[in-house]
## 1
Amino acid sequence: MASDQDFCECRPLGFFIGLPFALLSLILSLIGAIIWIIGSILSCCCPCCICCTGLLNVAVCLIKLPVRILRWFVNKIPC
């Protein structure tokens, strides 16, 4: 895998095409962060809630979504 410096070096078009979608996913990321905070507090108060771990995993995936979308778009554009 290339370093972070090579991420958009020769493919700025993919970065700019993916930017609106990354901004939309940023909203989902904020929702994921709120779910993660609430789920963390809930799992600390009541560790017997096993469903909180699944909810926290979904929230972490939502938080990582903007970066995944940008990388996907950048990788689709040939160098």
## 2
Amino acid sequence: MKKLAITLLAVVGLATSFTSCKKDDDAGMDMMQDQAFVIAASSSNMFEVAAANLALSKTKNTNVTAFANHMLTDHGQTATDMQILARQKQLDVAESMPQKYQERLITLTALVDTAFNRQYATMMVTSHQETINLFTAASQNSVKDEGIKAFAAGKLPTLKRHLEEAVTLKTQIGQ
């Protein structure tokens, strides 16, 4: 009987420790999902700012200039908001752009005049579509932290407006 009691205690103890480890693993996965969103969102934002700065240095088109200035204002604020959120959640923002964004900037850098303006407008449409998808997923289910979900949901109206403006810019340029 004593052996049975010890065996039962051992089994219960193991089950408890496995459940506890599972909870720790789940918390770690949640943190990784939250961290992955913050990195992806801050990388995308970094690209928007860099592309806008490049546009301001390369274009003579007033529509492109106005759009780029608007992107700098809004995405500059988003960068600040993201840094504050990341600090509160003990997460890291991206320190550099992933290769896909670097390649887009290299493509833009090589272009001039109308070719630059057209490619910039096209990239802004694509980039905002990608970012809207990222923020929509985060606001619905891909992140676990409620504060990060709320941040993503709160930025969606502005991102959707940016997409509309990018589509309009593309039309104005003649694509």
## 3
Amino acid sequence: MGETQSRPKAEPLNEVVPNDVWLEIADLSEPPALLALGMTSKRLRELLHTTSVWSSVLRTVYRQRNISEASYPVHLMSVVEMQRAATAPYRVEKILVASAKRTGVETAHHINKLNSSAVYPIASLGAVDLSLTHLVPGGRLFVVAERDAVSVWDIGLAGSPLLASPQRMTRCTVCAG
């Protein structure tokens, strides 16, 4: 009878692509996509789950989002802490979009770009209704809903004493529908 010829088994893409190409892809990827890429194989996890990769990613997020590098001292952070910090703006954005959908507000048209060009002492808020506040998991950031905006305050590294003078990191203006 006829022999069936089988094709040679192709190597998985993550095995044949050189490390420097993966690192270039990592450099061009958004933090959530980079986390997902690192979960696709043991090789990529070992390559991408490093201080050098995530410190670079976090510094890129700083520049893109106008976040003060003092907010997250990279030299004191573990890779997991850097990953959380780098993906935080994306998580906040996702929450804002979900909230906008629930309330019927079109986020893209009614929320200005996050901008931290100015940093103010938290005392400038005056009295704050605690029902309109939220401590972000991880404990570093405190979110305050104001009448026409949402502010994010840096209260210090989780596990450390609160900053003597907490700083407003960003303020997102929300326009009424």
